[in-house]
TrEMBL record:
Name recorded for this polypeptide: Protein transport protein SEC24
GO biological process: COPII-coated vesicle cargo loading; intracellular protein transport
UniProt domain Zinc finger Sec23/Sec24-type: residue ranges: 51-83
Sec23/Sec24 helical domain segment(s): 577-677
Protein family according to the UniProt entry: Belongs to the SEC23/SEC24 family. SEC24 subfamily.
Gene3D superfamilies in UniProt: Sec23/Sec24 helical domain, von Willebrand factor, type A domain, Zn-finger domain of Sec23/24
GO CC terms, sorted: COPII vesicle coat; endoplasmic reticulum exit site
UniProtKB keywords: Protein transport, Transport
Coiled-coil residue spans: none
Transmembrane annotation, as ranges: none
Length: 815
């Protein structure tokens, strides 16, 4: 579990928090094997016996004051009694995990039977309203998946189009049973899938049925247009319906799987030839949904004409209109999935407008991933699938963050499902070691922290989860074969308690910030919900350096004065924060980011006394935009510039496909801070030769490339890796770089460590088209558009920030 705060010295009180202009929050990767310093948890057992505070329910930890018969909670200070058993145990030094480390992983007792075996359930739902190429790609992805699935897994194959197909592969030949979806009906299917095919026939053990599943995959064929039109009846206005009944198919599949969720039961199948029996117990299943276009049939169909209408430009803001979901159907379906313990991974292989803005909720809220591949040709789908399934993951997780009593969690961000009843409790059906969640904090009262008290700002993160534990290696080697039933299911409780310090002044805050985490929090604030973007602009700049309250009200009235009060329910002057929300588009998000940076620069210049005020005006025309006094802040202007240049926040007119934008939003919002900052501002390394590095870091500018004089560059943009040979590179340098060189080894290492499969491209400058590479050289690009201009780019962006900061500070009614 890695925990990264935006600063290790927390602001002392609300005034300080606003004055510093830096978001106060953290990122947490709960299932990461190590903490942020590379230290593993101390393992233990009897998690259910770990003492808890009777006041705040925090768990006992190493920061608690321990007496012979009692302990003081490190979060709220309450004194709690110890049980006789704990008294005996805690009297011995290092007797248990919770006495040794503040990062522990404890086993919990199994629910249900002792003999329980892990039976992970996987279901593929394949779109047949598609092409041969799409099905070929899907087949190879599923074959890769079968290779990656652990022993004991159960696999089910379903298809959808204008009908739903369920496969029974366990007999001598695969049998498919179809149910037709009614095109007009507002109801779901007239029959339950359980009545069409019992679950035990549908879910086949991968160990024994791998070949049978593979041959069933071979029989998949796209539905013919004749079939579809016959089923659908008349098309609207002579336009044929596509017949992709995705909504109904997913809804009925989730109910089908959910019917036995959490039950321990034996499935007995007796066919004439081979009596077959297995017991099934699962508390999480994964559905892989392969989609070749928008759902356009039956319940949950999406109207893709809105995209066409935007292109026809009816004076509406496309960047605003295409962001919200057009129906709550898939968000509601995600709730059904979570209830059923099912996580949905969505693989869209299409270049058609599919409205991922509506579909995304089904995957991200159920803890799944969303993948978009614009073509079947260079798709990394099979590799991504294999990679995703071969790494360990936790399932059926509950994540809870507790804070010491001076502060609280304000917002939480990430791919989870919030508990409908308890605050700050998140359900995550499926979570791998990369999955990262973000939080921002707020003070509970005006008092804040105390510098003199020994009670320090404290956080405790509790993560309860299940894992499949591999068989004991000894028993495998002794018997010579691996037995599938040696895999077992384990429930665990992982707890991390972290203490911080309060900063004595703003400079201390600035000295301990982590720019990557700041970028993460800003990213989430801007992107978590475009429809209801909640971004804080700290009004300290307005109040202290510039305008009066009227300006604040002015800003609010252009966004959402009402919603601000409705959502947050406190007075603006008291809190001093403007939160604008509702109906925000790309344009607003960009303005808010820009203003955030302007404010930070103003605060920093004020804190370091870099600007001098004359009579109501400044005596200087320049402020320190580069944060020259504070190395920790120096990368921020570049990161903000790059975020503004990212397709995520670029305008529709610049040719950013709305589905691609949503895909990036989903991908980025689960990344840990270092990966996110690499995706936003790629790293650029130069090489003298494939075997020798020249410079480890270049800024993303053409000028930097030219002046460096290096022949080879390697760019890592997280989803894309580019090796670029400059046009002046010596012809004797081998191209592409040979397999066993330093450059290749670094590339392979990066590929291995990454959550997705990055695309690798080799380009020779002067010979190949270098546009892909050059597009990443953003620093000469105009922040507001794609045009190249020698006077624009990053330098003029800084000039603009400089001007805006001066304007703020110079407001005539300033103090
Ligand atoms: Zn407590």
């Amino acid at each position: 579990m890695s925990v990264r705060p935006t600063m290790t010295r927390f602001p002392l009180n609300p005034a300080e928090q606003e004055a510093c202009g830096v978001p106060w929050g953290m990122t947490v990767a709960p299932f990461a094997a190590m903490d942020e310093n590379g230290i593993a948890p101390v393992y233990g057992s009897n998690g259910e016996l770990l003492p808890r505070c009777e006041n705040c329910w925090a768990y006992f930890n190493t920061y608690c004051q321990l007496d012979q018969w009692s302990w003081d909670c490190s979060l709220c200070g309450t004194t709690n009694g110890l049980s006789t058993q704990s008294i005996a145990q805690y009297s011995l030094p290092n007797s248990c995990a919770e006495n040794i480390s503040s990062f522990i992983d404890l086993e919990l007792p199994q629910e249900g039977s002792e003999e329980m075996k892990a039976r992970p359930v996987y279901v593929a739902a394949v779109d047949l309203s598609s092409s041969e190429e799409f099905l070929e790609l899907t087949k190879s992805a599923l074959l890769a998946a079968l290779e990656a699935l652990g022993p004991g897994s159960l696999f089910g194959l379903a298809t959808f189009s204008h009908k739903i197909g369920l496969y029974d592969v366990q007999g001598p030949i695969p049998v498919v049973k179809n149910v037709f979806i009614h095109p007009e009906s507002l109801e779901n299917l007239t029959v339950e899938l359980e009545d069409v095919m019992p679950l035990f026939s549908f879910l086949a053990p991968v160990d024994t049925c791998k070949d049978l599943i593979a041959s069933a995959l071979e029989t998949l064929k796209p539905t013919t247009s004749w079939e579809r039109t016959t089923a659908a009846g008349q098309g609207v206005d002579g336009v044929l319906l596509g017949g992709r009944g995705f909504g109904v198919a997913m809804e009925s599949l989730l109910k089908y799987l959910g019917s036995e969720y959490g039950n321990t039961y034996a499935l007995v199948r007796t066919s004439n030839s081979s009596p077959f029996c297995f017991s099934l117990w699962w508390n999480a299943a994964r559905v892989f949904a392969f989609l070749s276009g928008p759902p356009d049939y039956g319940l949950g169909q999406l109207d893709t004409r809105r995209y066409g209408e935007q292109y026809a430009s009816k004076g509406e803001d496309a960047d605003r209109a295409l962001l919200p979901e057009q129906t709550p159907f898939y968000r509601d379906l995600a709730a059904v999935a979570v209830q059923a313990g099912v996580c949905v991974d969505l693989f869209a292989v299409t270049n058609e407008y599919t409205d991922l803005a509506s579909l995304k909720f089904l995957s991200i809220e159920s803890g799944g991933s969303l993948f978009l591949y614009s073509s079947t040709d260079d798709s990394t789908l099979p590799q991504d699938m294999y990679r995703m399934l071969s790494r360990p993951y936790a399932f059926n997780c509950v994540l809870r963050v507790r804070t010491s009593s001076e502060f609280k969690i304000d917002h939480s961000y990430g791919h989870f499902f919030p508990d409908p009843e308890y605050e700050n409790v998140q359900h995550i059906i499926c979570c791998d070691s990369f999955a990262t969640y973000a939080y921002d904090f707020d003070f509970l009262t005006e008092v804040g922290f105390s510098l003199h008290s020994k009670e320090r700002p404290t956080l405790q993160i509790a993560f309860q989860y299940s894992v499949v534990v591999p068989p004991n290696e000894l028993s495998v080697s002794s018997s010579g074969t691996s037995r599938r039933d040696t895999y077992s299911l384990q429930r665990r409780l992982r707890i991390r308690t972290v203490q911080f310090e309060a900063a004595r002044n703003i400079n201390e805050i600035y000295d301990t910030v982590d720019p990557e985490v700041i970028l993460s929090i800003l990213f989430h604030e801007v992107n978590s919900n475009f429809r209801k973007v909640v971004v804080a602009i700290y009004t300290y700049a307005f109040c202290k350096l510039g305008s009066d309250r009227r300006d604040c009200v002015c800003v609010l009235s252009t966004s959402a004065w009402l919603s601000y009060n409705q959502i947050f329910g406190f007075d603006l002057p008291y809190r001093g924060v403007i939160l604008s929300s509702l109906e925000q588009g790309i344009r607003e998000a960009r303005v808010l980011l820009h203003e955030w940076l302007v404010n930070l620069v103003a605060q920093y210049n004020d804190a370091f006394k870099l600007v001098e005020h004359g009579r109501g005006s400044l005596t200087t025309s320049r402020v320190d935009v580069a944060f020259s006094q504070c190395p920790q802040l120096q990368s921020l202007p570049r990161l903000i510039f790059a975020l503004l240049r990212n397709p995520l926040l670029r305008f529709h007119e610049e040719g950013v496909h709305p589905d691609y934008r949503i895909y990036l939003q989903c991908l980025f919002s689960a990344l840990e801070p270092s990966s996110l900052s690499r995706a936003i501002y790629p790293s650029l390394v130069s090489y003298e030769s494939p075997e020798k590095q020249a410079f480890p870091r270049h800024s993303l500018s053409r000028a930097a490339l030219l002046t460096s004089g290096s022949p080879i560059f390697f760019l890592d943009a997280f989803t894309m890796l580019i090796v670029f040979y400059s046009s002046t590179a010596d012809a004797s340098l081998p191209f592409p770089p040979p397999q066993d060189c330093l450059l290749r080894r670094s590339i392979n290492k990066l590929k291995q460590e990454r959550s997705i499969t990055p695309k690798l491209i080799f380009i020779r400058g002067g010979k190949d088209d270098a546009t892909v590479f050059e597009n990443y050289l953003i620093e000469e690009q105009d922040v507001e558009g794609s045009g190249f201009n020698s006077v624009m780019g990053f330098v003029s962006f800084l000039d603009e920030i400089n001007q805006d900061v001066l304007e703020y500070i110079n407001k005539p009614n300033g103090k």
